[in-house]
Amino acid sequence: MSLKPSIVCLRWEDPATGERHEPLLSIPVALGRDFKTMPTAANGRRVSQLVLNSSEVSRFHALIDEDRGGLVIIDQNSSNGIFVNGQRQPRITISNGDVVQIGPYQISIALADSGATNGAATIEIPSIREEAESREFSASSQSFPPGVFEAQQVSIQDLHATGLPVDEADYVAVGAGLGSFAWVDLLRIHGAKTRQIVALGLYEKPYGHYQKLCRNSQIFPHERLRSNSDSCPDNIWGWPSYALREAGRELLKGQIKTALGLLWQVFAEPAFAQTYTPRSGNVFAALDREAKRINWEQMYRYGRVRAIRKTDDGRYAIAYSRSTANQRDHAIIIARYVHIAIGYPAIQFLPDLQAYRQKTGDFKSVVHAYEYHDHIYEHLERYGGTVLIRGRGIVSSRILQRLYETRQKNPNILILHLMRFPKPQGNKFGLSQRKVINHNEFQPFNWPKGCWTGEQRALLEKADAEERIRLTTDWGGTTTAERKDWKRIIDEGLKEGWYKIEFGEVEKVEREPNGLVTYIQAKQFKGQTRLETDFIIDSTGLTASVFESPLLKDMVEHYQLPLNSWKRFLVGNDFEIVDMQNPAPEPPKKRFALFRPRRKVGRMYAAGVITLGGPNAAVDSFLGLQYVALVAVDSLAAKRAPGLHRLNPITSLGQWLKWAMNRLP
Predict the structure, then answer these.
(1) pLDDT in tens, 205-216
(2) Is 269 helix (H, G, I), strand (E, B) or coil?
(3) Torsion sign (Cα): 545, 220, 411, 490
């Protein structure tokens, strides 16, 4: 008996953000970029619409409809066609588990009876101090922030009446991570003094959170990051680059061949040599030097920001907790200029794995790559076993390398790599197309290089909001670095049989006598595929929706801030959140005054992934964070913010000399 579905679940990961979508849609379903008129099916029924914002997708690209009790997908004379399970098809019957590729979107078909879910779960990334504070948060959240924060504009007088410590600064950086550090560094270089700046965050080192994620995902100090030679968060000028510095150290050790090899990489990449990337330990050491040079420790304050409100004098009140496990301590700081760069608020955890952990309480066998999970490699080194990697991209490549290194000590290790669908071809933009080998899509960096300083950056700045989303979708995607050692590991594993690639949608994960069992749905409901393993490592990455952050969610809802379609902030080309501007009251008119005082305006800026879909694509990279900081601080200097002076070639050279000699800005 044939199944006649009226509802279908279409599952895909956003090509740019990696976030998972699983909408339930009534048949028929039209898929396209922009429906000017409502398409209708042959029988005149109303059609569900799924908008896929990419230039590779035609306005009305394809239609999913019923045919003789089953489902068919029909190409609507699109420019780039539709691919079903890797084969281009003008019209074809589709069934449960099939994968449809439309432009950069890989969409798997799940009939409603196959158990559609509501999306990916997320889990927070706590630090030791965060865990301690979370215990006190439930008890104190009822009374902090104080009740005056319910207002749209908080009275300065009311803030002082709360009895809480109230401090003031010209500039406050919320987050105190790498994005905050880039902004503070530029403020100092442009003339601001340490006494004018406060950086609020949970890690004393500006790279503390990032370093933790690197360490958990097995990137040790000697391992290389996916970054560029001149993407130096400690050095806005980018010279000397990381490659030149590393080559210099090798020359001092007498390693002439190694030094020349590093320089050759930079000169010949990527056409004739593998792209140079810096060691994480060298990056962190350079950041330590710059942090000391600008007196970061004098500007940093430990604190979790709870809420931000506009004040009645054109500034912002920032309520933050300084609590520890033993003491509750809250404070308020008022500033004219605020910069928000909180990074990724959560790691994206696959729903079936989250369900398994909630059901069993097993946090040892099923882990996320960004969680601390060294016990897995220690166990495998001693006893061997089978590991299942979920997801693909740069994180899964790093985990695969770590498993390969463990396998050199114990060859009795089998690695299964589960991907949701095959990857027959890479993303295209214009005449360019990314390379795909063994279903991995390759690109030196997380974005095409032109997104930083080339044509693509300029194109994005000039585009409107919708066009920015479309361009970013076309340029983005889940890629991995084109490293020779990673290619060699996969080739060797496939040849020798200890590395296997599997495809499919997971229905559930269970603990059975033989270990962990992952059930994969088979096409047309013809049973299930079972994968038996000892461990599962989720490598699907991070999520950055503002609603995953209690602070940002509160701010968006309190001020009804508009967001883009990826639930990120709408920002100007200088990365100001324009809807958060806070003009001070008009200064009183003086009868005989020759000059009228300027009206002061509070301004708020944002950086990092919470601005993706704005005027810059590579916002979560080292160079991207520096670029965002540069345009924001330059904008403030042009508005004559206190202590700031715009740089010119002479003053910039002078500041570089101070950097080179390790002197205060």
Answers:
(1) 999 999 999 999
(2) coil
(3) positive
First-to-last CA distance in the chain?
A: 77
* Stretch 321-348: mean pLDDT: 89
CB contact at 8 A, 62 and 78: yes
Instruction: Quote the Cα angle for 139-143-144, to 5°.
Output: 95
Q: Strands, E, within 112-245: which ranges?
A: 121-124, 153-154, 166-175, 197-201
Helix-strand-coil split of the chain, %, nearest 5: 30, 25, 40
- For the stretch 386-429, pLDDT in tens is 999 999 999 999 999 999 999 999 999 999 999 988 888 888 88
pLDDT at residue 569 greater than cutoff 80:
yes
Q: Are 313 and 585 in contact (CB under 8 A)?
A: yes
Domains plus CATH for the chain? Answer: 7-114 (2.60.200.20), 140-212+300-345+545-587+595-660 (3.50.50.60), 347-443+479-543 (3.50.50.60)
CA–CA dist 86, 99 (Å, integer): 8
Reported in sequence order, the residue ranges of 513-554 that DSSP labels E, i.e. its strands, are: 515-521, 528-533, 535-538, 542-543
Please give the distance of CA 83 from its chain centroid, rounded to a whole number: 28
Q: What's the token pair of residue 525? A: 């409901």
Which residue would you say has higher pLDDT here, 431 or 32?
32
235 pLDDT more than 70: yes
Region 71-89: mean pLDDT is 90
For 162, residues 6+ apart whose C-beta sits below 8 A from its C-beta are: 146, 148, 332
Residues 302 and 129: beta-carbon distance below 8 Å = yes
User: What type of residue sits at position 203?
Assistant: Y
Look up residue 315 and give its two tokens: 């500034």
Give the model's pLDDT for residue 517: 95
Considering 17-31, 65-79, 621-635, the range whose residues carry the highest mean pLDDT is 621-635
The residues facing 63 across adjacent strands are 30, 74
* SS3 category, 155: coil
Rounded CA separation 202/324 (Å): 11
Amino acid at 49: Q
Q: Structure pTM?
A: 0.90
Nearest to 635 by CA among 574, 555, 548: 574
Query: Long-range contact list for 447-456, CB < 8 A, 24+ apart?
Result: 447/475, 447/476, 447/617, 447/618, 447/621, 448/475, 451/475, 451/616, 451/617, 451/618, 452/228, 452/618, 452/621, 452/623, 452/624, 452/627, 456/617
Q: What is the average pLDDT across 209-238?
A: 95
Helices (H), 384-504: 394-407, 450-453, 455-462, 465-475, 484-496
